[in-house]
Write a structure and sequence with these properties.
The structure holds 2 protein chains of 2 kinds. Chain A is α+β, with helices and mostly antiparallel strands. Helices cover about 30% and strands about 25% of the residues of chain A. The longest helix of chain A is centred in the middle third of the chain and has 18 residues. Chain B is an alpha/beta fold. Chain B is globular, with a radius of gyration of 16 Å. Classes of the chains: A alpha+beta, B alpha/beta.
């Protein structure tokens, strides 16, 4: 019999836990109540005992991954079915073994434990051809759907019996937008070894955040047709306002008056004029988002996160300034709620904060554009045939050419530039 | 329920961990009653599993050169510092079913510490979302715990002595900008670890509804 092991709820107000350590490995025998894995939530670590005696058949959640409570993290096979499980995990390929319903055992992909980072399947499949797996692991309907959408079934790990890719699995993949791109691009087809024999290194597992950033960035590169346009902004008007009102602003609102809220304000106003930049692509449709929810990328010592200023169109300079500071503080103190990072429609990132002239950011999916704010510094420029010194900075817009053409992107940027250079609105 | 108060005195971190783990294992097996252990550590920086090594402000070698050990441990929370003048408490309790809530346990520990601090003349409080005990924006006690089948271990560290410069080598709890304080700093008078321990023991007993007893005779308290 198979017994699910779940992420326990360690307290009424606790909704998730991070699996920090598997004390037992796949294939290990376990006794009832013997420590099976360790979890971490907030300031609490806990050892979780096995709910039954048997053998650890399958690990569904890797170390370092955070999952909601009641998520199945592993499957135990109680004694009756253990023998069959062992037999299955010993054979390299699941050679069409039509597992009886009672013992779907370890889907071949998940069985070989050590699985350092990725959910392993690639290793297990090395011996079998993709074609064989397609045949053994999926129904004709699934194969048809896969062929239509150019999805490589062998690159998926199935939830069906014996690891078969089910109709639901493939629809989920299509839903997630992972399809529609060459399957090879995602897969480990072109594998360049990360190290040479004898090379000295220290192996450190990526954090969950690092892995998510990595996945998202590659996914975005494969999804959007990135084009960058670059504009130079004369911040003299903003600079003057900051000098005149900075102290009073800090006094009244408790936050410093930086360039960021001005840029956010200009962007929000320009997005209202060019709604195609505040949109997403959904299959063959364009979704024009009614709300402007501004993502603000925040660099952390341990990664990067993009909290979202909701309803940015309704905020004043002060409102934007406070929202940005508050979200950045929450991010740095690890206090962001899931809702704080969801629902963004356009993102601003600030690669200039360390002195970079400009960056060419990667679009934050499913958005279609992202603005990179370059460093602002005094530069000599020509005004009315005279050389003048002005605080200057570059703004780089990466946009998705699938939806946005260069002319529109440039008109949008010209509009942002005009608003910044001629800013005259109230700030206090 | 009976709870033994155990005073281990100044104990190196590794030795204290070994004793704590043994006691927790014995508690799971029902061989010993609940305990509240008080201990004072030699300087050590400990990393919880959630720790970020970037929160060590000096390389390990530099810490060691200053006589500060670095250890990883199985409690929740980020990096912290223990050293002389700090009252470290390990509650090793088998929680009753109605108390089996990790957040409740953290809040109860905070409550006992806040009340004990009030007895010592220090006004302390909780800070939403930041486990621990605070005086204004200054942190006076850190908390990080472990449950093993609802037997608790690790616990809290209450800064008692005036000197909290030991924390200068880390970003306490991974919260940049947090300043540390102590009972002596906040109360403006001299307070010994024993006085602090007595206050904590009294309030701990009330909050957790334990009847405190001195350690059992030598031999049976070997754990």
């Amino acid at each position: 019999m198979r017994v699910d092991v779940i992420m326990p709820q360690m307290g009424e107000s606790i909704q998730e836990g991070t699996l920090t350590k598997w004390i037992r490995k796949v294939g290990d025998p376990v006794k009832r109540d013997e420590p099976l894995f360790e979890i971490s939530t907030d300031k609490v670590d806990a050892e979780i005992p096995a709910p039954a005696a048997g053998r650890l058949a399958e690990v569904k959640v890797e170390e370092g991954v955070t999952v909601p409570i009641n998520t199945v993290v592993a499957v135990l096979e109680t004694d009756a079915s253990a023998a069959l499980g062992a037999a299955l995990s010993a054979s390299p390929a699941p050679a069409a073994a039509p597992a009886p319903a009672a013992a779907p055992a370890a889907p071949a992909g998940a069985a070989p434990k050590p699985a350092p980072a990725a959910p392993a399947p690639a290793v297990a499949r090395a011996d079998a051809t993709a074609e064989a797996l397609r045949r053994t692991r999926s129904s004709p309907v699934v194969r048809k759907i896969a062929a239509e959408h150019g999805v490589d079934i062998a690159s998926l790990s199935g939830s069906g019996i014996g690891g078969r890719v089910t109709r639901k699995d493939i629809l989920a993949v299509l839903e997630s937008g992972a399809a529609g791109r060459p399957a090879a691009a995602a897969g480990p087809m072109m594998h360049v070894p990360a190290f040479a024999p004898g090379e000295r290194f220290e192996r450190v597992p990526m954090t969950v955040m690092r892995r998510k950033i990595a996945e998202h960035m590659v996914m975005s590169r494969h999804t959007s047709a990135h084009v960058v346009t670059l504009f130079e902004i004369n911040y003299a008007a903003i600079d003057r306002i900051r000098r005149e009102h900075g102290a009073a602003f800090l006094e009244r609102h408790g936050v410093k008056l930086t360039y960021m809220p001005f840029i956010a304000k200009a962007v929000v106003e320009s997005l209202a004029v060019f709604p195609v930049l505040n949109a997403s692509i959904d299959g063959g449709d364009v979704l024009y988002k009614k709300d402007i929810n501004l993502g603000i990328a925040v660099a952390l010592d341990w990664g990067l996160i993009v909290p979202v200023v909701k309803g940015a169109a309704d905020l004043t300079i002060a409102g934007l300034a406070k929202a940005i500071v508050s979200l950045a503080d929450k991010a740095r103190n690890k206090k962001l709620a899931p809702d704080d990072v969801a629902g963004g429609t356009f993102t601003i990132t600030n690669p200039g904060q360390f002195g970079g002239l400009f960056g060419t950011p990667i679009i934050n999916q499913p958005q279609v554009a992202i603005l990179g704010v370059g460093g602002i510094e005094k530069r000599p420029i020509v005004i009315d045939d005279a050389i003048a010194i002005r605080p200057m900075g570059y703004l780089a817009l990466s946009f998705d050419h699938r939806l946005v053409d260069g002319a529109v992107a440039d008109q949008f940027m010209a509009d942002v530039k005009k608003r910044l250079q001629e800013f005259a609105g109230p700030v206090l | 329920m009976i709870c033994e108060r155990l005073d281990w005195g100044r104990t190196p971190y590794d030795a204290a961990m070994a004793r704590m783990d043994a006691r927790a294992a014995a508690r799971q097996g029902g061989a010993v009653p609940d305990a509240l252990v008080f201990v004072e550590h030699d300087p050590v920086v400990t990393l919880g599993r959630g720790s970020h090594r970037g929160h060590l402000l000096l390389p390990e070698a530099a810490l060691q050169a200053r006589g500060i050990a670095v250890r990883e441990c199985g409690r929740g929370g980020d990096v912290t510092y223990h050293g002389p003048g700090q009252l470290v408490g390990y509650p090793i309790l088998l929680l009753e079913p109605e108390r089996r809530d990790a957040h409740r346990f953290l809040r109860d520990l905070e409550q006992a510490l806040i009340e004990a601090l009030a007895d010592l003349g220090v006004a302390a409080r909780r800070s939403d979302g930041r486990t621990g005990v605070w005086c204004g924006e200054r942190k006076i006690a850190s908390i990080g715990v472990r449950f093993s089948r609802w037997v608790t271990s690790h616990g809290f560290a209450l800064n008692v002595a005036r000197d909290v410069s030991g924390f200068d080598v880390i970003v306490p709890c991974g919260l940049p900008g947090v300043r540390m304080s102590s009972v002596e700093r906040e109360s403006g008078r001299a307070v010994s670890l024993a006085q602090a321990a007595d206050a904590v023991e009294r309030r701990f007993a009330q909050v957790f509804r334990r009847r405190m007893s001195a350690a059992a005779p030598v031999g049976s308290a070997a754990a």
